Amino acid sequence: MSGREWELPFTVLEANEQYYVLESRLEQSEVVKGLVWDVYLIIHAEQSVSLEETQQADTKPEDDFDEGEAAEEETLTDADTDNSTENDSEDDPEAEETIEERGILEKKYRMRTKHPFLELGSAVDPRTKQAITPYTTNKGNLSFKIHDRGPVIKVEEAELDNRGNVTLEGFFFSPFPYENNVLEKTLVIGGPEGIEERVIPYQTIERDDLSPYFQDQQPHRATGFKVKLHVRDLCSTDENSTFRLYFKWEDEDTLGPDQGDLAIPLQLISFKRRINKHVILNTDSGKKKVSLTARKKTRSIVIKVVQYSFVQELKKKVRRTLTKVKQSKRTKKAYMAAFRMAGYLPVKKNLVMFESFLGKQYSCNPRGIYEYLKVNRPDLELVWSVDGRNIGKFENAGIPYAKRFSIKWLFKMARAHYWVTNSRMPLWIPKSKHTVYFQTWHGTPLKRLAADMDEVHMPGTNTKKYKANFHKESSKWDYLLSPNAYSTEIFRRAFNFHKEVVEVGYPRNDVLYTKNSPEDIKELKEKLELPQDKKVILYAPTWRDDQFYGKGRYKFDLELDLLQLKEKFGEDYVIVLRMHYLVAENFDLSPYEGFAYDFSYHGDINELYLVSDVMITDYSSVFFDYANLKRPMIFFVYDIESYRDKLRGFYFDFEQYAPGPLVKTTDEVIAAIEKFESDGFTIHSEIFDDFYERFCYLENGQSSHKAVQKVF
């Protein structure tokens, strides 16, 4: 998961025309805490590949139809997915082909395994006290994880009978003596908010049959369990509910939550099997459909209780059937062919298609241009490309849209005269000759981009493939928006872009000049339901390439101590969290009620800029935009050495020229806020003045007008 690759020598024990038997030794001293390692076999073919074959391999439509954006711009699409520490980044178990520059074919195979009990072979290093645990991923691949805590809890059998009785059988085990000997183990079931968690009794069973799977030096063995649960007890409310089952391992000698306490969801053991059983029960609150399922991504066991309706069930079956048809390879190929054919239809010269962050938002530079055109160019038809999960936002606001990848979207995109977007489009989308592609991008670069990156640490890609795909996409752009001369130089080189750059500032920042008045800010605070009598701290960090659950599924560890900030500033301040769209997770802010607000999914970050008195960020490009307000900024860079030297690298000496203090701890954040407060939140810094003159000199509220005059 760190992006490192580690080659392991192996010995061939047996070989014939059909298979090889390989043996390899994994030295635990080589691995690093907190990582997940995936295992591959790479074969280099000795014959060279013709140019024609190379081109065919590079343009297979099924390879990138589902890819959408590059790895750093993909997002989690399964709303029913739990956070998981396992990494299974392979979408296709077949060989992944790449073409080397010298014409040698390379095939990369994910190492498969059908072994359901691999985790029982976990071993603890007596020196580091860390465990290395092999496991079979959801898709049947071999991986290893390195960790310093955490038991294994698996369900082998799960049954739901016609009377609504659930029976679960499985085993639990931990390689760590403390967890086995000290922590008390209870099985609990938790429902939605407002439903109290309850303890479920279970029976323990000796499991000598699992002993052969343990390491010889491992003194602890697995304990079997069996639990029976009557789901009729869960049907007492009229609301639809989802119940999750956990094993809790708690330190009974410590009052309150303890650092050693663990809550592990029950997971189905076999990657092949799926549980999807249901029963219809007559209850006092009507007919209920009770389902026992294992979630697709994590295999965690859940019980769902919903009101039963024959009509609704029929509709669901029809939708599922249509979804399967839509997602079939044959349908995808037909859709792509239709897109190409539609490109030969007459152009709609007045049609402009907009998209922001893969259709998830009504925001950024496309929004600034759209709102200017809406007022000043009534002759144009303005339509937004919208991800299906975000349609409600556009419908409620009365904004014209086409659902991304729908038939309507296909014909509008293929015939549009203009595309305006701030992120890359899927590679398979062909651009017609009549279409003008205006790429607005979404920030002034601090971190290295595309061709300027030495190494790519994102899941599902590698450095060479990432750069090749990026340049393939940028070759379609006709215009590229730039906020300043500094960005223009970088964009041309990093994006390999040789057409016209529109260097006029960012349209998204116009509002920072036109709406920056006490009256407007008061109105915005009312809209956002923020207290008028308190100052606002905005926390807007970026994402980390090497922190993810899997391909396109990034996570973020909140290092800022909100409790400490609340204790210090809770009387006079509130803090607003605005996470990057790739890591906008649902943070539990209930302990900080009245102080911390999560606005990660708020459409317009400019509104958060305007209501804030000080911003905390890190390496996010938001500070280039926020500087237009000439308000204080704090750079919380607890991992700057890793980010600077390993992940991305910077285009300029960030540590010397950052327009605000660089801090690494919450204590230092507090001290910086107190310093700004004592100065009346005014900035007295030559570094800031120089920064403003270098990066914000083009922006004065007229960038939308200038961009439209240039391109349209």
TrEMBL record:
Bilayer topology annotation: Peripheral membrane protein
Region of interest (Disordered), residue spans: 51-101
Acidic residues: bias regions: 61-99
The entry's keywords: Cell membrane, Membrane, Teichoic acid biosynthesis, Transferase
Compartments where found: Cell membrane
InterPro entries noted in UniProt: Glycerophosphate_synth, TagF_C, TagF_N, Teichoic_Acid_Biosynth
Family in the record: Belongs to the CDP-glycerol glycerophosphotransferase family.
Official protein name in the record: CDP-glycerol glycerophosphotransferase family protein
Organism this protein belongs to: Fictibacillus terranigra
